[in-house]
Structure formats: C-alpha cells, structure tokens
Amino acid sequence: MMKIRTIAATLMIGALTGAAPASRPVIPSLPYVIDFERGAPLLTGGSPATPPRPGTVLPVADAAIADPPRDPGHPAANRQLLISSHGYEMNALFLLAGGAGPKPTLLLLHGLPGNERNLDLAQAVRRAGWNVLTFTYRGAWGSEGTFSIQHALEDTQVALAFLRTPETARRYQVDPTRLVVAGHSMGGFAAAWTAANDAVAGNRSARPGFADAAGPLAGLILLDAWDIGPSTAALRVGDAAAARAEFIAGFDDIGHSLGPITAADLADELARRGAQWQLAALAPRLSTSPMLSVYARHGGAAENKAFADTLRRRPGADVTAVELDSDHAFADKRIALTRAVVGWLETRGQVVSTWPGPAQVQARR
Fold it and tell me: What separation in angstroms does the CA of 30 have from each of 7, 47, 57, 217, 345?
C-alpha cells in the first residue's frame, strides 16, 4: 500500500519543548497538511482544503513546501538585471513576490565560490510574501570585473544601496524600511560586515539618494557564516607553506566560477588581509536589530554559536540561534533550513522550529 507522507503546514512547536512528534503531527492552528504523493492540500481530517484567496500570504511552514495562489493583478515574477559596482556590471536576479504594494525584501548573498546559491530558500521566502534579490559578485559567475573577497564586501554594500534608491523602491515594489540581509558562508560574513558598516544605521530619516523613510536594516541572517580571520590565521604565520597548500587543496570546487582567480590567489589575499575579517570585531558595531544565526553541527557551529552568544549578551539584543545536524551546505536539511529562515522572517525569532529534522533551538531573549 502506498504510504502517504505529510508535513505540517505551520511550525512544529513541539520541537521547542522537546515533546515527541505524533505520527501525523498536528497543532491546533494547523490549516492543512500537504500530501507529497498527490501534491494536494488536505484538511487535517482528510477532506479537501478551501484554497486561500489571491494575495494571501501563506503561513510560515506552508511557504516552505506549498505554492501560493496566483494574484492575476500582481503576479509573482522574475527580473534579471545588472547592478553597477565600481564601474562593473554584476549579474542579478530579483524574485518579486505577488500582491500589490511595497514588499519586505531580502538581500541574499552567496558564498565562495557560490556553487550553493540557496535559491530554494529564496523561492520559499518569496512564497512567504518577500522580494528576494540575489546577485553574483564582481568577477564571479560571469559578472564583470575581478573577484576578490574585498570586492565582494564592497559589492554587497552597493547592492544594499541599490535596494534603498527611490527608483528601485518604485519599480520593484520594495519597502525600504523592511530590508533584511542574509548570507551563506563567505556571504554570511559579508552580510555581517555590511550590517556593521551600514551608513544608514541609526538614521531613520530620509537621506539624499535613498527612498523615503529608508532606515536601518530590519534584520540580519547568517547561514553558517565563515569567520574568515581565525580560520585562515595559519596563512599568516612565519612558515605558512603547509597551511597554504592545505587551503588551496580544500578549494577544489572553484572551476572557472571566479574567472582567472584561483585558490592560490585567494590564499594570497587572505594572507595579506584576512586578519581584519573577524566576526568578533564586528559585534560592537552591529545594531540591536533582530538577527538569526543558523549554523551546521558539521560545519561552522562553534564559531557561529560563539558569535551569537556574544551578541545575545548586549542590552536589547534580539538574537535567535538554530543548530542543524548537517554540513556546511545544509545538504540534507534544506526543508529544515527553509522553515527556520521563513519562520524567523514572519515572527522575528519568537518561534523557530525545524521539524522534522533534529535541531537545537535557542530562542531569543
């Protein structure tokens, strides 16, 4: 007999309390579950669900696994565009959410070199009613210019400024008061670095060249962020030949993604500048805007947990940390990752769960 697998369409609160999930997990507010074999929404009792009306934002976990209704007047759309950074054009893709009016918007940054773009996460965030802007740094994946980590940090600042311009706000229905920057691996460091160096931080008034009422970031999301300085310290000691060779061997997934830039070039840059790129150094300059840190038990859990704990100790801190039993790419926890991120975006960290995968969740305080 065919087994019907179901996944709850809202967050599984039991994961926070330690309660064991039922064989068919249901919580009182559950609108429906998804039958993966038949691809149809069902009421918890098994009868067909009433489809939501166009323009309705799906509940948190629904956006992870179910499509929203099409809004015929303002449908979701993809827009390819070019963003100019220091005289070079970067390839970008804007995933625009359906529905009328300005939308909260996520700037999503890829890592080094960016083989994992987290576009499944981007699509889920859009299903939850957010615009998502993704781009490739200068010199990466066909964008003009020369890649370097320093350039990637600068490019992220440029992309954030792009989202705050009146033209962008008007053309792409962006709410400049609800911008969140998220990044994976090197992109996570770039997100934190950009937030710490945000020129608009602390100034909620309109600024020349920015959309009306553009204010500080509404949030920051780190996905197993790379703490660059400490992890590359061996490249800067007296006899770094062995460390350099190990670093180069570890970057065997670059291919031609960075144009002529090789792992050896990256090692040289990190030997010169890597000491300044430390998460801990950014903590004093980060605002108390909400932050979510999702880290991998078999990746960068130790450094990311330490950074989240440091930020959590500040007065007024709003920090949520989620540890997933996965690797640096979250290769086997994509749904859990999506639920954690989309859930946090909707609730600002008040409830975060990663059912059905095991996770350690530390709610904000």
Answer: 11, 14, 15, 32, 19
Largest CA-CA distance found in the chain, in angstroms, rounded: 69
Three-state SS sequence of 82-134: EEEECCEEEEEEEEECCCCCCEEEEEEECCCCCCCCCHHHHHHHHHCCCEEEE
The residues, ordered by sequence, that sit 6+ positions from 89 with a Cβ below 8 Å of its Cβ are 82, 83, 143, 144
The residue ranges of every structural domain in the chain are 77-227+278-362, 233-270
- C-alpha angle with apex 285: 247 to 145, nearest 5 degrees? 50
Distance, CA of 34 to CA of 50 (rounded, Å): 13
Query: 271-283: buried (b, 16+ CB within 10 Å) or exposed (e) per residue?
Result: bebbbebbbeebe
- The pLDDT of residue 247 is 93
User: What is the CATH architecture of 77-227+278-362?
Assistant: 3-Layer(aba) Sandwich (3.40)
pLDDT at 243: 93
Q: Which helix (H) or strand (E) holds 192?
A: helix 186-196
pTM for this predicted structure: 0.80
Q: How far is CA 110 from the centre of its chain?
A: 9
Answer whether residue 172 shows pLDDT above 50.
yes
